[in-house]
């Protein structure tokens, strides 16, 4: 049995799959900026309703992005932690594939930019939505499709299983953070020492 976790978007989900990729149980919920708390609630819900637990999983899959920088880290860290704790292998599936493995997929970045992946090609960051048909989510997408952990079963044969320490996130672009405008923590260097040395 495989536990799949997706936390890269405002919709988080977990799914238990058999070794052939068939879904045994799956749940999801909206969780804007609260992926870690929401994913724990979903795991508890599946255990309560279906009797399935991470303790009995044979392997763990994480949504490795792209998507929310922090959200991706939550899912990858959780899969790695389970892998370490239970001595199991882990694997990663892109959020593109967790939306759709067979269609053009769009995932929002910042300021009107989207990660876009066409079938059979690598994802890339671009300004605006692509022409033609696509699925995904973000500003301007009328019918959102979010990554869903249950879709990992569709690409299970292509998952590369690794030791927990080898699982890494897929970041197509640098995180959208800015450097401080001035260095902090060195008031002594500016002649503003407030005590004796």
Overview of this structure, please?
With 197 residues, this protein is an alpha/beta fold. The chain has 3 helices and 9 strands. It has helices at 35-50, 69-86, 95-99, and strands at 2-6, 11-17, 23-30, 59-63, 89-93, 105-108, 113-117, 124-127, 135-136. It has a 5-stranded mixed β-sheet with strand order 3-2-1-4-5. A 4-stranded mixed β-sheet has the order 8-7-6-9. The chain is globular, with a radius of gyration of 19 Å. Mean pLDDT is 89; it is low at 186-197.
How would you summarize this macromolecular structure in one to three sentences?
By secondary structure, the protein is of the alpha/beta class. It is built from 3 helices and 9 strands; from the N terminus they run βββαβαβαββββ.
> How large is the radius of gyration?
19 Å
Quickly give the structural class. alpha/beta
Poorly predicted residue ranges: 186-197
Q: Note the main sheet.
A: 5 strands, mixed
Total beta strand runs: 9
Quick one: overall form? globular
Q: Report how far the terminal alpha carbons are from each other.
A: 60 Å
The level of helicity is 10-25%
The side-by-side strand order for the widest beta sheet comes to: 3-2-1-4-5
Number of helices: 3
User: What's the mean pLDDT score?
Assistant: 89
From N to C, what is the helix and strand string? EEEHEHEHEEEE
What fraction strand?
15-25%
